[in-house]
Amino acid sequence: MPTAEELEAHLRLLLAGAFVIGAAFGAISQRTHFCTMGALADVFAFGDRTRLRAWVAAVAVAVLGFHLMVGLGWVRAADSLYGGTRVGWLSAIVGGAMFGLGMVLASGCAARNLVRLGGGSLKSLVVVLVVGASGFAAMKGVSAVLRVASVDRVGFELPAGQDAAGALAAATGLPLQTLAPWLGAAVAAALLAWVLARPEGRGREVAGGAAIGVLVVAAWWLSGRLGFVPEHPETLEPAFLATNSRRMESLSLVAPLAWGLDWLLFFSDSRKTLTIGICSAAGIVAGSAAVALATRSFRWQGFAGTEDTAGHLVGAVLMGTGGVTALGCTVGQGIAGLSTLSAHSAIAVSAMVLGGFAGLALQRRRIERCG
Fold first, then answer.
1. Distance CA 202, CA 207 (A)
2. Distance (Å, whole) CA 37 – CA 169
3. Pairwise CA distance, residues 211 & 206, whole Å
4. Cβ-count burial 135-145 (b if 16+ within 10 Å, e if not)
5. b/e burial code for range 169-198 (CB count within 10 A of at least 16 → b)
6. CA distance 47 to 131
7. Cβ-count burial of 149 within 10 angstroms (0-12 exposed, 13-18 middle, 19+ buried)?
8. Which residues contact 294 (CB under 8 A, 6 or more apart)?
9. 175 and 70 in contact (C-beta within 8 Å)?
């Protein structure tokens, strides 16, 4: 059992590691324009699947890495938010659709707005603050009461965990650590085959997506392996350190933005502490800013007018509320959640994609009317 001093040093290491992972995410995203909403917009407007292939490459690498770590006994989906036995399908659909629509109105998901903030966008600063505030309301405030009393009531229980490897292991009787690497390799191979099938799947953008997948795996290792203590000195129980959920976490943005705002507003309260999620979000801004300054692409940017402001505010509220309701964003569910092959994540991401396409269709119709 670690001493209090050893535990404090370990916490600092975890937070520093999370910041570095976030900074790498921000730098890569700034350099390669990695963006889920942008990927959907490219497909919708031009039929260009380059950035979509980058996103799928990120998922493929994350799936492979996560399941290899399951095979090594380092992590388990059951220890995360994504591997429980209950599938809240209505929350996933409603929250996912809200997030998908919101990211179109706000010109990008929560992660993309953090990257743009690092590049000098004051619009993104407003979006990030509103996502954090509305996300906190969805966790603890008036919208939380509505959420718990409505969509969260609908779902079903599974006899085993909802992650594919856990479910297959329970159904077949095969050891999870034997089954998981093979399943992860098969799914990753299928996804990468689609990514590499066309020339646009072999460029810098897709390489950036693969690197994002590596960072998601690194975050799982940081939280689930390095951040796990079998016996916490205060509770004498197993614990995952420096996470708001008290479970292992990977990259995700909506809830960390909410907890980060809570930490800033109540900084003098010693119970409010930095976590892996908060530090990774701060790292994204720092990494993006470093690249923007190094490439001389840093530009201050504000709102174009009242309509632009209103659209971004509505989009930010939808993202904050929807991200909490769906248990994640296009990074938290769309890459980290999918890396566990969770049923809830698959439903939530499908709803985000449909919500995103619906938002793009509404934008096109509005432009056509105005034109």
1. 7
2. 35
3. 9
4. bbbbbeeebbe
5. beeeeeebeebbbebbeebbeebbeebeee
6. 30
7. exposed
8. none
9. no
Closest CA to 133 of 38, 125, 116: 125
Decide: residue 157, CB within 10 A, 0-12 exposed, 13-18 middle, 19+ buried: exposed
Partners of residue 228 on adjacent β-strands: 240
Long-range contacts of 156-159 (CB under 8 A, 24+ apart): 156/86, 156/87, 156/89, 157/85, 157/86, 157/87, 158/85, 158/86, 158/87, 158/343, 159/85
Q: How far is 66 from 138, CA to CA, in rounded Å?
A: 29
The rounded distance, in Å, linking the Cα atoms of 27 and 283 is 9
Structural domain total, the chain: 1
Q: Can you tell me the distance from the alpha carbon of 35 to that of 189, in angstroms, rounded to the nearest whole number? A: 23
Contact assessment for residue 43 and residue 131, using Cβ atoms and an 8 Å cutoff: no
Per-residue pLDDT of the chain (371 residues; tens, 9 = 90+): 677 788 889 999 999 999 999 999 999 999 999 999 999 999 999 999 999 999 999 999 999 999 999 999 999 999 999 998 999 999 999 999 999 999 999 999 999 999 999 999 999 999 999 999 999 999 999 999 999 999 999 999 998 889 999 999 999 999 999 999 999 999 999 999 999 999 888 888 999 999 999 999 999 999 999 999 987 777 768 899 999 999 999 999 999 999 999 999 999 998 899 999 999 999 999 999 999 999 999 999 999 999 999 999 999 999 999 999 999 999 999 999 999 999 999 999 999 999 999 999 998 988 888 76
Helix (H) or strand (E) holding 16: helix 4-32
- The one-letter amino acid at 60: A
Residue whose entry in the numeric block shows the structure tokens 């979000």: 281
pTM of the model: 0.95
Tokens of 3: 């001493």
136: containing domain? 4-370
What letter represents residue 256's amino acid?
A: P
Q: Both tokens of residue 311? A: 């659209």
In the structure encoding, which two tokens stand for residue 78, read together? 């059951």
Report the distance separating Cα 71 and Cα 87, nearest Å: 24
